[in-house]
Hints:
Layout lengths: L3 E2 L3 H10 L3 H7 L6 E4 L3 E5 L9 E5 L12 H21 L4 E9 L2 E12 L10 H4 L5 E2 L3 H18 L10
Antiparallel strand pairs: 1-7, 2-3, 3-4, 4-6, 5-6
Helix pairs in contact: 3-5
Amino acid sequence: MLEKHPFDIGAYEKRVKEGSCFLCELLAGTNPHHVIYEDQSAIVFLNKYPSLYGYTLVAPREHREQATGDFTLEEYLQLQQLIYQVAEAIRRVVPTERLYIQTLGSQQGNRHVHWHVAPLPPGVPYELQQTAALDSSKGVLAIPDEEMALLARSIRQAMERLSPSLMPPSSN
Length: 172
């Protein structure tokens, strides 16, 4: 069982409200994360501040701010297909009782639209599930960098095994 370490939610809120777009920085190579997969239209990476083991984010490469309004139906469905593949890969790698998929963010911070794919492990008491399981104000998991790299690689390999014909070659 991984321990949680404190997370400064105030500093995080200040950074996302006043700082540069963390996703655009990641794509520019100035905000390193453990990338699971990327192609010409999207990127998939592990959450740097996970409240759950295997917590992953999926985002379009292009800075878009509306979960549906900034996409054509075809673009949206392509992203949802990728999210499905990521979710199924996570379920094969991480013990999962329930998989949470949602888009979060705000016009006040974290404007670049992205989807959260977070696996709830089996046996979590009901009162600690759902939004409580995603609450980083109670701390985030202290996962060593080497383990994060292995987890990203394992999820990527599971994605490739699931449907190689649907997966374009990864640039990583």
